[in-house]
Amino acid sequence: MKKYIFIILSVLLLGCDKMEDNVFSENPDDRLQKTEEEYRQTILAAPNGWFLAINTKKEGAYRFWMSFTEEGKVAMLADMDATYSGIGETSLVPSGSTWQLKALLAPSLIFETYSYLHLLADPDNNIIGGTKGEGLGSDFEFRIVSEDNGGLNLKGNFNNCLARMDPATPEQAVKASEGGLKTVLEKHADYLEAVRFPTIEVGETKYLVKPNTRKTDFAYIDKENNLVEKTVGSYLDFNSLTQEAFASDVHFFEPVELDGMTFKGLKWNGEAYQVEIEGKTYEIFDNKVPPYPLHFGYNQTFSQLYVNANTMQGTLSDSFMNELYTPAYNRLGERSRYIQEMYCKFVMDALSGKPVMEFGVTYENKSNGKTFTAKWHYPYDVNEDGTLTFTDREQTGSTNEFIYEEYIYELPDLFCGLEYSNYGDADNWSQVVKSKIIPHTFKVDWAENKTPGLSGNIGGLFRVEREELFIAGQLKQ
Amino acid sequence: MKKLKYLICLALLWTVWGCSEEKFTPDQYLHGLGGEDYTPNEIDEWILKNFTIPYNMEVKYRWDQSELDLNKTLVPVKEDVVIPVMQIVKHVWIEPYEVLAGEDFIRLYSPKKYVLVGSPMYNSDGTIVVGQAEGGRKITLFRLNRFTPTDKELIQEIMKTVHHEFAHTLHQTIMYPEEFKQITPAGYTSSWNNVDEEEALVLGFVSRYACSEADEDFAEMISRIAVYGRDWWEQRIAKAHEMYVNAASPGQYAYDPAEAMRQKETIVINYLKNIWGIEFYDHDGEKGLVTMVQEALDRVLNEEYES
Questions:
Q1: Closest chain B residue to A135 measured between Cα atoms?
Q2: What is the pLDDT of residues A167-219, one digit of tens each?
Q3: Which one is the CATH code of B174-302: 3.40.390.70, 3.30.390.50, 1.20.1250.20, 3.40.50.300?
Q4: Are residues A123 and B118, on separate chains, in Cβ contact within 8 Å?
Q5: What is the rounded CA–CA span in Å between residue A79 and residue A62?
Q6: Domains of chain A
Q7: What residues contact A72, with CB distance under 8 A and at least 6 apart?
Q8: What is the pLDDT at residue B248?
Q9: Cβ of B39 and A70 within 8 Å?
Q10: In this prediction, does ipTM exceed 0.85?
Q11: Looking at chain B, which residue has its C-alpha nearest residue A97?
Q12: Cα distance from B66 to chain A (closest Cα, Å)?
């Protein structure tokens, strides 16, 4: 009996009508078409065109000014000519593509034929650079993620590059048509030249916030004394062109989290950039040198320092040039040997098992075109206050060094002076007897970069008893 | 028990009555069904007139990632090369076959889709792909953004690809004789990119890519001879023979590469004639495929065709 009731119940249940229960009032296809049509109308409704900024994987932001037509054509200008030569005047001569909105995984805006936008993604690295087979890691097919403040947030379908579209104002459109995409970047170079190390100070910590033309760099020293570095793709708006400001506002593709703070972008207040963090405004000032301590020494962040006295005019001190370099250069020059480069390098000394500072002077013999590097090793003590005292100096053994040391002695003497009792009678270094050792103490610190066009991290060794007597150079790891 | 039977009958009736009629509406709108929706421009109209209507062929120059390798960085083609490239394809590939094998030949056997890509496709081993065929259905041409109408070398490269891929379609439809694979079996290698042109020649191959496998060898034979011409081919054979004769030591080469190349050539000639009724070389005063392709190339380069 129970069995039959069970069968009856099963049959009854099977007969239930399956009702479709949609969460939305319309079916997906209708909704998709509607959304697509809305986006189409938005894109077509910008009378002065759109600015599109894309954050490429390899080089940060590139910016375009675009005008879309109902017939599916798009004309654009681009800012690539600010960085690359040989690709034509992309900021003045328009390039065209066809465009479409398509329902892929999400409603997507596709630039269908080759244009400036595609230069960035071209896998042929002879076109614009980047990696062979990948280009700069860019996109030309975007899903529309959201709409806000009259603009569109996009994400690339292939490389997931973030992109942002904002409608242009009439003034911006005029500037863009006159090559503004390029000039705004060129103008920004003036800011970067004037403010070498843009820095904010929050509490007792200094943070480097450096808005480069296509990305913004952040750096600071955390509580564990580690250097923390971050980079975000960023682009400049047209304020420096339309409002005649010295610099344009800087927009980040995504907020940057740093030491518990969120950075959303930089605004130019007429005199300096400012950044807003949790309702408070901080002004960016020029710290002249990086806003964190330099770690230069054996097994440190940097262990080498290179000096090219010809290309570092202004950064090297007058004392260094007049008292040491020029006399040495001239005397060696009289023997048709010309100093090209100098370096300080912290290396392990195999004999003593202790690190030493190696000072090298590279000079070219003009008569045969050969170069030679004279090297000296300086054992040193690290003092309690972090300064270094170079306690002695050894030549590294070559005849060439033995012969020419007397003509350039000011340079090796900078770190530790030596007097010899029998230099004139000796045939080689091993016969020389030191009669006096004059050690010097040095402070390791950043040096201010005062040479136009010189880039990189500049550090120096400053003699403690005479701080204006220092050797400065480009730091290497 | 009887009551129960009634109950079952009643339940069944109720069940049947309970079935609702499915409302299937075939006219329901499906977004994107029926192809892409764009305003045709002059390129679209040219393609329609020259490829789609006469040959039922689609020429895709608008970017569509789904037609391509999803893991490869590629970029679309420049609009201004689409018509010139496809015009050359028509003159140098379609027209010779139409004359030799009849108007319906291309309609029957041609791939139905051309996909045009601007950049080359890079392989992880550093080689690049300039053309691809998929089961006789689709031909993808890469690297077209480098095209200029007077660049003979590049035009030959493009047309070599087209003829090469179509040769695949032919042998995938009816296979070439098995003997072809037995002529230089030891020469086939997957690391063909490490073989240079001279090494390939001395092994009896028309090109380095021909060393990759027999199917490629076959397609390379047809496409290279057609696109570079019979004189070029004869010079290659002569050079191969010379290398064989002037070998450093008598036993250096196991066989005469020129002989192997001649055997392959004979198979290609017979295959095209017997299977498809196409003369490869001039015959009885009639022009063969190679001559027609060569003449079309000359006319393309001298801009003798109306655009």
A1: B73
A2: 999 999 999 999 999 999 999 999 998 999 999 999 989 999 999 999 999 99
A3: 3.40.390.70
A4: no
A5: 6
A6: 28-169 (2.40.128), 182-286 (2.40.128), 304-476 (no CATH)
A7: A98, A99, A100, B38, B39, B41
A8: 80
A9: yes
A10: no
A11: B79
A12: 10
